[in-house]
Amino acid sequence: PDDPPALYVEHVDVTYGRAVSALRDVSLTVPHGRVVALLGANGAGKSTLLRAVSGTLRLHRGAITAGRVRYGGTVLDGRDPVAAVRAGVVQVPEGRRVFAGLTVDENLRSGGLGLGRRGPAQTAEARDRVFTLFPRLAERSRQAAGLLSGGEQQMLAIGRALMAAPRLLLLDEPSLGLAPLMVDRIAEVVREIHAQGTAVLLVEQNAGMALSLADHAHVLETGEVRLSGPASDLAGTDAVRRLYLGEE
Ligand code: ATP
């Protein structure tokens, strides 16, 4: 066990159903308090890796068939999302899934569930922190989440995850489908979360944004890690520039 803890993904294989191999021999580490980016084309296995860490793979009929996932001294493979949340690891799913019919406030309160007994004071404190980060959510706390803009819903999805006070936040394509200004805002938020000492494993198709935020990055290709290195080094490699930064 290490303190402060880091995430270790060690030689992980993931299969969906009986036949679909989605990850093969994937290893990576997210040190305490760092931002690590995971890049790759559609279907490369990025979301699968986040699910393998957050315990949500089974909800998608997937399973870890080899390897180990641990956060510090806690083994996470074969466990459920509650175990991950209790260990301090929380995922923000792709597609900003919020409860459209519930208010912003109700959505936020759902984010602390599964943590056992948490008093109203702790919940209020967590919510105050979210509102400081996202003043817009404070203004709209009594509105139905379904009435928020796409960017605001993404903020709510992140805010809900932060209610569990994670030490490692797993972010799946937070910029997807958002206008450039909102993408900048999300990038600022990731910086702020990082500045507060929370580690982030960031899946992004927006490689420019991800590499500007990350310390370290990995490129997944058809279920395998193809490239790894400091984000500034990867941004300079020809393959990444061509494939993910849209340069010739
Ligand atoms: P995207 O950005 O499109 O989500 P990704 O890199 O996150 O891509 P994954 O969603 O992890 O990729 O998918 C990896 C592989 O696993 C793909 O071949 C995909 O078709 C397959 N896959 C993902 N989810 C399932 C599922 N529930 N059942 C079967 N196969 C799946």
From TrEMBL:
InterPro entries: AAA+_ATPase (IPR003593), ABC_transporter-like_ATP-bd (IPR003439), ABC_transporter-like_CS (IPR017871), BCAA_Transport_ATP-bd_LivF (IPR052156), P-loop_NTPase (IPR027417). One of its GO terms (molecular function) is ATP binding. It holds the Pfam family ABC_tran. SMART domains: AAA (SM00382). Residues 7-247 form the ABC transporter domain. The keyword Transferase does not apply. Keywords: Amino-acid transport, ATP-binding, Nucleotide-binding, Transport. Belongs to the ABC transporter superfamily. This is ABC transporter ATP-binding protein. It comes from Streptomyces tricolor.
